[in-house]
Amino acid sequence: MRRSTKLAAVVLSGSLGIASLAACGAKSNDTTASSGASDGALKVGMAYDIGGRGDQSFNDSAARGLDKAKSELGVAVTEADAKTGEAEADKETRLKNLVTAGYSPVIAVGFVYQAAVEKVAKENPNTKFAIIDSASDTQPSNVTSLTFSEQEGSYLAGVAAALKTKTKHVGFIGGVQTELIKKFEAGYRAGVKSVDPNIPVEVTYLTTPPDFSGFAAPDKGKEAAQGQLDKKADVIYTAAGSSGNGAIEAAAGAGALAIGVDSDQAAQPALAKYKNSIMTSMVKNVDKAVFAYIESAKKGQVFTGVKNFDLKTDGVSLATTGGKIDDIKAKLDDAANAIKNGATTVPTDPTKL
Asked: What b-and-e string marks burial along 50-83, b requiring 16 or more CB atoms within 10 Å of the CB?
């Protein structure tokens, strides 16, 4: 989920496929020359969601997994960016260019790639694909879904918010009103309710499909957070990619608390000046999923079907940077254990609360 500084593309020679990658905004590395990968190394392509590497959130988590695979497994990698407002054909072209350049597996970061992945995978049955945050009954067998139980981590974020709010009023901001982001909302609201059902939760979505700019609009995130602060919410959880950076800024300016998402945002250098206002982050360990998937491919035993990462498998967690939730650790541990042992089932649909 979304935008900041980009790494410069390294120009590769001798391949029309790689040349076309650069044309569509790829960030490529000549790994045999610059990363120490040997000839014949597994070649992994990553197609980012809007915002790409540097969003301090969702894409950055995926990038960390790719970087670890490059460093520890010796794989060759290239990266390709998405653009805000792009057409479906652009996603398909990006994936096709990675395939043409010889990359397999190809990892698509984000549910917005579902249709494009299915189409390109069917056309290229010998290429392995993975898609993060999405699964479909119609996707071909060469596509692996890497999914997460976001509602479980968000539940813990809700428990923390309810225990920390002084005004007894909290907020949730979703980047785009999709089924995926509704899982974050549902879990968060359920967690708040488990502590005190009388605490109101302000809910704001920045955009609705097909407008996905809500994942890369810090100004919209800041405006939405300010609206919730004006209503006396003093803890705001934002599941909106780089749009959340604006919400964090607004919370910091008002002396309120923010809950980050996907990455440990209090530990992100670009958000350092706001770290004292970031209570915790609901970390979705996309990096672990990406690394585990690439490792399975390198071993020749690639994951298939749907591979879900939940609280029990450390697929989601709460960050502890800054120590702001240390005093409620026992209660958070109790809530987490109740989920892990099945005593608590966290809803995924906010309309069912």
From this structure: bbbbbbbbbbbbbbbbbebbbeebebbbbbbbbe
Residue 89 exposure: Cα atoms within 13 Å on the Cβ side: 0
Does residue 216 contact residue 84 with C-beta atoms inside 8 Å?
yes
User: Could you tell me what percentage of the chain is helix, strand and coil, using 3-state DSSP and rounding each to the nearest 5?
Assistant: 45, 20, 35
Q: Which residue has the tokens 């990038």?
A: 63
Average of pLDDT values for 245-266? 97
Domains of the chain: 16-148+287-309 (3.40.50.2300), 150-284+323-352 (3.40.50.2300)
Contact between 215 and 241 under an 8 Å Cβ cutoff? The reply is yes
Per-residue pLDDT tens over the stretch 115-153: 999 999 999 999 999 999 999 999 999 999 999 999 999
CA distances, 339 to each of 133, 193, 240, 262 (Å): 21, 15, 25, 20
Instruction: Name the strands in the sheet holding 170-176, side by side, starting at the edge strand that comes first in the sequence.
Output: 201-207, 170-176, 235-239, 257-262, 278-284, 316-318
